Amino acid sequence: MTRILIVDDDPLVRAGLTMILAGTDDLQVVGEASDGVEVPAAVRTVHPDVVLMDIRMPQQDGLAATEALRRAPDAPEVIVLTTFDADEYVLRALRCGAGGFLLKDTAPAEIVRAIRAVAAGEPMLSPTVTRQLIAHVAETGVDARKAAAVRALAQLSPREREVAAAVGRGASNAEIGTELFMSVATVKAHVSRILTRLGLNNRVQLALLAHDAGG
């Protein structure tokens, strides 16, 4: 059973998500919070596997809450919630370690699928969505980000850099395997080692890093 904490300042949104997840056999809503400031105590109390995190909340927004939460050891996965697919805060949340994002008007079946994917450690963002988000990277600080990303990727072996570049293009594990003549299991092993070596939370952060470096 995957345990879910819902964080949103709108009680109707919380109720709707709870209703959707109540219809599944493997997902359980174990707690709710109405603001980012409530997240640490809620996580300590209910021990969720996945947190559905609203971005815009009155006291502490989801970005700050996500960043603080993902710095903690054994942190739950975070999926940010938004009403705008090009919201700059979504991209910032992904850089802070969120596993992906959901639009609040996403179909119920897709919400369930996304939560299951993130809980299983799989990327939630489709290649199309990954490319769309990367296209909205703010231009500020591009040179500094590129220099830092190039230094980080220099730690990798040539093969690992090839995998990282493919992740940066939004390729799935199966697509990377076909392109680089690897099994999907080998691709997953490479991605896992890359994340560990670079101190990243997930492949979304790796995709952003590879993009910053120039693909």
Write up what this structure looks like.
The chain has 215 residues and is an alpha/beta fold. It folds into two domains: 2-124, Response regulator (Rossmann fold), CATH 3.40.50; 142-213, Arc Repressor Mutant, subunit A, CATH 1.10.10.10. The protein has helices at residues 11-22, 39-46, 62-71, 88-95, 108-119, 127-134, 142-153, 158-168, 173-180, 184-198, 203-213; strands spanning 2-7, 27-33, 50-54, 77-82, 100-103. A five-stranded parallel β-sheet has the order 2-1-3-4-5, with helices on both faces. Helix 1 (11-22) links the parallel strand 1 and strand 2. Helix 7 crosses helix 11 (203-213) and helix 8 crosses helix 11. The chain is globular and about 50 Å long. InterPro entries: CheY-like_superfamily (IPR011006), NreC/VraR/RcsB-like_REC (IPR058245), Sig_transdc_resp-reg_C-effctor (IPR016032), Sig_transdc_resp-reg_receiver (IPR001789), Tscrpt_reg_LuxR_C (IPR000792), WalR-like (IPR039420).
